């Protein structure tokens, strides 16, 4: 996961199936070194909880392209949560990444596509730590699919 505060508070909010997961922390863009390390973890299931903005989704795509068994914890956010905690600046400043993500997003689980559609319609990104602020937020584990 990307943010330290989320790292500290997420274990209590993980879906039951992931309650014993090892949680890794990175900042901002997923580094090539960390991605190379993740690829070497044979047999490990990698679950990503990125920021919900173009950079976070680009990181999710990089992991999905590198690892055949990657997944993402998709927070099931309401429009009200996106309105309250979303940030127009992070969406706008990184919007140039969106066109390149669209073909990949089309292949993804409906929960991820619906979340992206909500973010795009609101023109807002949501930092992952805000997903923990709303106590009603549920994280749904979904398999990431590789763009061919």
List the helices and strands and how they pair.
Blueprint: H1 4-9, H2 32-40, E1 46-48, H3 54-66, E2 70-75, H4 79-85, H5 88-93, H6 98-106, H7 110-122, H8 128-133, E3 139-143
Structure characteristics:
148 residues; mainly alpha; 47% helix
Radius of gyration: 14 Å
Structural class: mainly alpha
Strand content: 5-15%
Q: What value does the average pLDDT take?
A: 84
Overall 3D form:
globular
What's the number of helices? 8
Q: Can you write the helix and strand succession as a string?
A: HHEHEHHHHHE
Distance between the termini: 25 Å
Main sheet specs: 3 strands, mixed
Could you estimate the helical fraction of the residues in percent? Answer: 40-55%
Describe the 3D structure.
The chain has helices at residues 4-9, 32-40, 54-66, 79-85, 88-93, 98-106, 110-122, 128-133, and strands at residues 46-48, 70-75, 139-143. It has 148 residues and is mainly alpha-helical. It has a 3-stranded mixed sheet with strand order 1-2-3, with helices on one face. Strand 1 (46-48), helix 3 (54-66) and strand 2 (70-75) form a beta-alpha-beta unit. The model has no long low-confidence stretch (mean pLDDT 84).
């Amino acid at each position: 996961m990307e943010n330290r505060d989320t790292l500290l508070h997420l274990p209590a909010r993980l879906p039951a199936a992931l309650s014993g997961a090892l949680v890794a922390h990175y900042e901002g863009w997923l580094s090539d070194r960390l991605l190379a390390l993740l690829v070497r973890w044979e047999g490990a299931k990698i679950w990503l909880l990125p920021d919900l903005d173009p950079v976070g989704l680009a990181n999710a795509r990089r992991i999905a392209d590198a690892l055949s068994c990657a997944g993402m914890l998709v927070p099931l956010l309401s429009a009200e949560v996106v309105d309250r905690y979303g940030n127009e600046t992070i969406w706008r400043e990184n919007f140039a990444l969106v066109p390149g993500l669209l073909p990949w997003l089309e292949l993804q689980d409906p929960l991820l596509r619906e979340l992206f559609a909500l973010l795009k319609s609101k023109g807002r990104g949501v930092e992952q730590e805000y997903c923990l602020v709303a106590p009603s937020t549920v994280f749904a584990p979904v398999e990431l699919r590789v763009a061919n």
